[in-house]
Write a structure and sequence with these properties.
This protein is α+β, with helices and mostly antiparallel strands. The protein has 3 domains: 3-120, Beta-Lactamase; 177-263, Signal transduction histidine kinase, dimerisation/phosphotransfer (DHp) domain (Helix Hairpins), CATH 1.10.287; 271-408, Heat Shock Protein 90. Helices cover 53% and strands 20% of the residues. The protein has a 5-stranded mixed β-sheet with strand order 6-8-9-11-10. A 4-stranded antiparallel β-sheet has the order 1-4-3-2. A hairpin with a 4-residue loop joins strand 2 and strand 3 (85-98). The two termini are 42 Å apart. The relative contact order is 0.06. Its EC number is 2.7.13.3. This is histidine kinase. It catalyses: ATP + protein L-histidine = ADP + protein N-phospho-L-histidine.
Length: 410
């Protein structure tokens, strides 16, 4: 885009430069002709000097005095009888003395042909410059793209690379040493990161499994201890608090184990799942839980959604959302479940979030008022949605005091 203005400016500048050169050449030509005319005036006798006006570009007239000490060049216009129009000319005026007689000499040269030459030269050179620039730009772009092709291939693979997919990154070879070094460095870095990620996942998986057994033993022992005779009220309350803590630890451990399995993509088997029927099952199963808080379900299923997903993951996703609505919902309120063209929305009435809504799907983010909450339920929902190609969004209406989670299907 910058080329055109530059070329136009260059053409204008070139035109004026050529015009100056032409002026200089015309001045030399007129000066040479003036010298010839002066020599002719010196050679011819006075009675024949009137015959010197043979050229239509030359005019000699008697003058009384030498009004011009030096020849004067001017730009003016004259009527050209041959062209039958007014033309621009370069004029030279001088006074020449022959003895006691003075003669006024006027020589002029039309600009027309020279101006056309200047214009054609300027336009031609400008067009050649633009064409040359376009050719160089085209060749440069081809070379640039060819040289950077391995770089763009590296960028494309990095965009689609996911460390949790445990897929080796294969980068293209390149004749450019810098790109080869870049590919080698990125490959080594991703291999190290994938190895560390795998070790971390194995550690989490192993730790969760190992913790589950002692937690179960502790829970069983506390149950037996609570049934023992002779316990004081204070001891019974301590045991009850310990049981609640163990149950929370066990729930957290199971959630972490589930997240690890999801990250490791262990839920690979998929099948068509009717989300509406799945919600029917869960509202029936969780009906007693909702009734304990005097809450009820309000359904508005206008659309049927059958999606291809792992059934267990679909069950966990919907179950976590409904349990979240019951757990945090206001006692005596309703839980509204609505289906759209490509969505399912679950709404409940509750207090505003005690933290930023951007942190809602992060791990271990929970309401401090609920001691038994692990802060992992919605993180599991987000992980399942991401791996299953679903969308999950949250909205809050301050006017209605209503929280809404919307699942969007592909």
């Amino acid at each position: 885009m910058v080329t055109i203005p530059v070329a136009l400016a260059g053409a204008v500048l070139l035109y004026f430069l050529i015009h100056q050169v032409i002026n200089s050449e015309i001045d030399e030509l007129l000066s040479s002709e003036l010298k010839q005319v002066q020599e002719n005036l010196d050679r011819h006798p006075p009675d024949t000097r009137g015959l010197l006006n043979w050229d239509h570009n030359l005019q000699i007239t008697p003058a009384k005095t030498a009004s011009l000490q030096q020849p004067v060049f001017t730009d003016t216009t004259l009527f050209d009888a041959l062209e039958n129009k007014v033309v621009s000319v370069r004029m030279l005026r001088a006074v020449h003395a022959v003895g006691k007689h003075y003669y006024a000499i006027r020589l002029h040269q039309p600009y027309l042909e020279f101006q056309e030459i200047a214009q054609y030269l300027s336009i031609g050179i400008a067009l050649c410059f633009m064409a040359l620039f376009a050719i160089l730009l085209f060749i440069g772009t081809l070379i640039f793209r060819r040289v950077l092709r391995p770089f763009y291939a590296i960028i494309a693979q990095l965009r689609h690379y996911r460390i949790d997919q445990q897929t080796a990154l294969t980068l293209p070879a390149s004749d450019v040493d810098e790109f080869s070094l870049l590919s080698q460095s990125i490959t080594e870095m991703t291999q190290q990161a994938a190895h560390r990620y795998s070790q971390q996942q194995q550690f989490t998986d192993t730790t969760s499994h190992e913790l589950q057994t002692p937690l179960s033993v502790l829970s069983t022992d506390l149950d037996l201890l609570q049934q023992s005779a002779g316990l004081s009220e204070a001891d019974s309350q301590r045991i009850h608090r310990a049981q609640k803590t163990i149950r929370r630890l066990s729930s957290m451990n199971q959630s972490l184990l589930l997240l690890t399995k999801i990250d490791n993509q262990q839920f690979v088997q998929v099948e068509p799942v009717d989300i509406g029927r799945l919600i029917d099952e869960l509202t029936d199963t969780l009906g007693d839980y909702a009734a304990s808080k005097h809450m009820r379900f309000v359904r508005s299923d206008e659309h049927t959604h059958v999606i291809t997903i792992n059934r267990q993951l679909a069950f966990i996703l919907v179950s976590n959302l409904i349990q979240n609505a019951i757990r945090h919902g206001r006692s005596g309120s309703s839980i509204t479940i609505t289906s759209g063209a490509k969505t399912y929305a679950i709404s409940n009435q509750a207090e505003p979030l005690p933290f930023a809504h951007e942190d809602l799907f992060h791990r271990f983010v929970r309401n401090p008022a609920l001691a038994q909450s692990t802060g992992l339920g919605l993180a599991i929902v987000k992980e399942i949605a991401d791996q299953s190609g679903l969308g999950i969004d949250y909205a809050y209406s301050a006017l209605a005091g209503e929280h809404t989670f919307t699942v969007t299907f592909p």
